[in-house]
Amino acid sequence: MTAEARGGRSAQLKHTGLRPGWTTGACATAATTAAYTALLTGDFPDPVSITLPRGQTPAFALAVEELGPGQASAGVVKDAGDDPDVTHGALVRATVRRLPPGSGVVFRAGSGVGTVTLPGLPLDVGEPAVNPVPRRLMREHVERVAAEYGEPGDVEVTVSVDHGEEIARSTWNGRLGILGGLSILGTTGVVVPYSCSAWIDSIRRGVDVARAAGLEHVAGCTGSTSEKTVVAEYDLPDIALLDMGDFAGAVLKYVRRHPIPRLTICGGFAKLSKLAAGHLDLHSARSQVDKPFLAYLARQGGATEELASRIATANTGLEALRLCEAAGVRLGDLVAARARDEALAVLRGAPVEVDVICIDRAGVVVGRG
Asked: SS3 of 147, please?
């Protein structure tokens, strides 16, 4: 029996019994691929297949096909699987038109896709809210289609979501300064279905399997990027990876009762700042990044009152981190150390050595504790 069959992150996903879905980024990539193909050939591929970062090759049925002078549009209805995602059923469209040679791939926000208006996000102010990984996926697929048909691949891609501005009212976009609609998201292209009971049960199963295999080091990861980080740092096998998601408390409480000699917690800086502040559920619906708390930690690290004031009013945790990095204040290490203290408090003296790694959105380590 392989390690993957017995445990680890892949087995956790299967153990939940929930059907996964596709991100808005995957849907936008499929729509872009279909639209660009039609622009070059006059025919829409339906279904249209794409390749996701982890190698999956899903096929998407087209809900919309429009071919006009110098441009083509295609639309895909998002299927979020068993996840209660507010964008489930949304129609994600991409309109592709040619640009002058040397332009590359340029992204525009269509109706229902937001625009970034505040700093602190992984996109510049004024940019359409199409996140970096979906942009990369769309560029890659444009390049593949262009290469197939001998075209340069210089195009404008306008992404839109029907009723996206209305749907966005149920998200945190407005508070983050993303105005006019939704963000096009996704780092893997796959929506991992969310169920508290099923996910916590899968975490417990992962710990049990790791213990049964005699492992002495496991890692609780908040997502795929943090998983890659701990594998690179410690060369851990798949069976040692616990897909913690937002459930830091579930990992810590179960490991307290069923100890493993070493536990690494790895996740995004913003999420782990919530753990540092004492939150054990890191989901955005139940805990928020506490910027005044970050300002308090920064003062302990030597931040001036002026810097602390800017941190306390920052738009996002990432903006607070960047402000500190520019000033030479190691906020990432301070957050990681405090998160480790909180983890040890939950473990209540259980024989478990803990270390914490904070990363940014690109997977760069920004703090250790």
From this structure: helix
Instruction: State how far the Cα of 218 lies from the Cα of 224, in Å rounded to an integer.
Output: 15
Three-state DSSP class for residue 65 = strand
Alpha helices in 90-131 (DSSP H): none
- Residue of 286, 245, 236, 300 whose CA lies nearest to 268: 245
Integer angstrom CA distances of residue 136 from 22, 53, 92: 16, 10, 17
Q: 184 or 285: which carries more pLDDT confidence?
A: 184
How many CB atoms lie under 10 A from the CB of residue 24?
A: 28
Instruction: Give the helix/strand (H/E) hosting 283.
Output: none
* Cα gap 203→243, rounded to integer Å: 7
Amino acid identity, residue 28?
A
Label residue 192 by pLDDT band (50, 70, 90).
Answer: low
Asked if 28 and 94 count as a contact pair (C-beta separation under 8 A), the reply is yes
Write the CB contacts of 278 (distance below 8 Å, at least 6 apart in sequence). Answer: 342
SS3 360: coil
Q: Rounded distance, CA 336 to CA 359, Å?
A: 10
The whole-model pTM stands at: 0.64
On the CB side of 183, CA atoms within 13 Å amount to 22
> What is the C-alpha to C-alpha distance for residues 318 and 312, in angstroms, rounded to an integer?
12
Q: Please indicate whether residue 54 or residue 345 has the higher confidence score (pLDDT).
A: 345
C-alpha distance from residue 187 to each of 224, 226, 296, 309 (Å): 8, 11, 32, 32
**Type of residue numbered 323:** L
Q: What per-residue confidence (pLDDT) applies to 147?
A: 96
Rounded-to-integer distance, Cα 12 and Cα 14, Å? 5
**Tokens found for residue 43:** 């025919």
